[in-house]
Write a structure and sequence with these properties.
Elements lengths: L2 E10 L4 E3 H5 L6 H8 L3 E3 L8 H15 L9 E5 L10 H8 L6 E5 L5 H14 L6 E8 L9 H4 L4 E11 L5 E9 L7 E2 L11 H5 L6 E2 L1 H22 L9 E4 L4 H11 L10 H4 L6 H9 L8 E8 L3 E8 L1
Parallel strand pairs: 4-5, 4-6, 11-12
Antiparallel strand pairs: 1-7, 2-3, 6-7, 8-13, 9-10, 12-13
Helix pairs in contact: 3-4, 8-9
The structure holds acetyl coenzyme *A.
Length: about 325
């Protein structure tokens, strides 16, 4: 039996900081409101228009390969979770393989919105568990600033840009690595959080652009409630599946959408705040980027054998929880 274990972590966030004071000048809002309602103080923005999602992904990969002394040719496979691909067609993963010099890797995109990294992590894990691949990169990367309407205070305060990446490798020690997951999808949520135009139903036209239908739109309150319910239930189910209680868990790494969502999930699970990793105050919601950016920021806190719960909720709706041992 082979398990997939995370052996390296990398990340990239753009230098440009968009703080709450800057947003106060763009829409009718306040630093106090944003902090109280979301926990976000600032986000990073890929302000250089030539910096696409693939470029952030490449910089995250370079960070990983350099820090762990791995050659790009060693990588077998790349799974890139994103909702903001460089193009509708071709896949961003192909561009990333080329730009990062992953000459021996095949690449594919995976879109499950804010749950994208979690789904990609398990998909990559199964490529390893099958015995067919030895080094799989799993990336979550999103340039949310490319689909955010900076005149809409309901959404523009929430999102940021960034990319995080992990390397999965095989281990024969099946007490470590990815252990189990619970994934759920409910397409009834599709209209509650979406970018309506630019796809096959409403291809981009002058009208869709004039109507701002190529930007993220959401019913925030409905997303909020469903995110709390979805993530806490998925966590409970994955714990049960592994005969664990919340007290057994060393760290929770939740999707960073809103600090109040994270706090509510922690309360429902009865897990103390010290065990829940949070960096939303610095990055906002980077969609597929939040979980790997948390792994990157806090990797030095994790010790071998630590029991970690990852959980996410996003558009679709898609949600889930993964239990792994560091
Ligand atoms: N500044 C000031 N006031 C604002 C702002 C703002 N930026 N945005 C909304 N308001 C106003 C609203 O207009 C409303 O005013 P009204 O009562 O006169 O209508 C009031 O504040 C309260 O609005 P609510 O929507 O009830 O505020 P809520 O506490 O729900 O916070 C928020 C809104 C932050 C969007 C929250 O619902 C949320 O985070 N939802 C989750 C959305 C999300 O994370 N989506 C991302 C993708 S999916 C995922 O990652 C989970």
């Amino acid at each position: 039996l082979t398990n997939a274990v995370i052996t390296a972590v990398g990340g990239y966030v753009p230098d440009t900081v968009l703080d709450n004071a800057a947003l106060e000048k763009m829409v009718e809002t306040s630093n106090e409101w944003i902090i109280a309602r979301t926990g976000i103080k600032e986000r990073r923005i890929a302000s250089d228009p030539r910096m696409a999602t693939s470029d952030m992904a490449v910089l995250a990969i370079k960070n990983l390969l350099e820090n762990y002394n791995i050659q790009p040719e060693e990588i077998d496979c790349l799974i890139l979770a994103t909702s903001t691909p460089d193009y509708i067609l071709a896949p961003t993963a192909a561009l990333v393989c080329h730009k990062a010099g992953l000459l021996n890797a095949f690449g594919l995109d995976l879109n499950a919105a804010c749950s994208g990294f979690l789904y990609a992590l398990s998909t990559g894990g199964m490529f390893i568990e099958s015995g067919r691949y030895k080094k799989v990169l799993v990336i979550g990367a999103d340039k949310m600033s490319s689909i955010v309407n900076y005149e809409d205070r309901n959404t523009c305060i929430l999102f940021g840009d960034g990319a995080g990446v992990v390397l999965l490798e095989p281990t024969q020690d099946t007490a470590t690595g990815i252990q189990n997951n619970i994934f759920m999808t409910d397409g009834l949520g599709g209209s509650i959080l979406s970018v309506p135009a630019g796809g096959s139903e409403f291809p981009a036209t002058a009208e869709t652009v004039a109507g701002k239908k190529h930007f993220v739109q959401q019913d925030g309150r409905t997303v909020f409630k469903n995110a709390i319910k979805g993530m806490s239930n998925a966590c409970k189910q994955v714990l049960e599946k592994n005969n664990l209680t919340a007290q057994d868990i060393d760290w929770v790494i939740p999707h960073q959408a809103n600090l109040r969502i994270i706090d509510a999930v922690g309360e429902r699970l009865d897990i103390p705040k010290e065990k829940i990793k949070v960096n939303i105050e610095r990055y906002g919601n980077t969609t597929a980027g939040t979980l790997p950016l948390c792994l990157w920021d806090f990797k030095n806190d994790f010790k071998p054998g630590d029991k970690i719960l990852l959980t996410a909720f996003g558009a679709g709706f898609t949600w889930g929880a993964t239990y792994m041992v560091w």
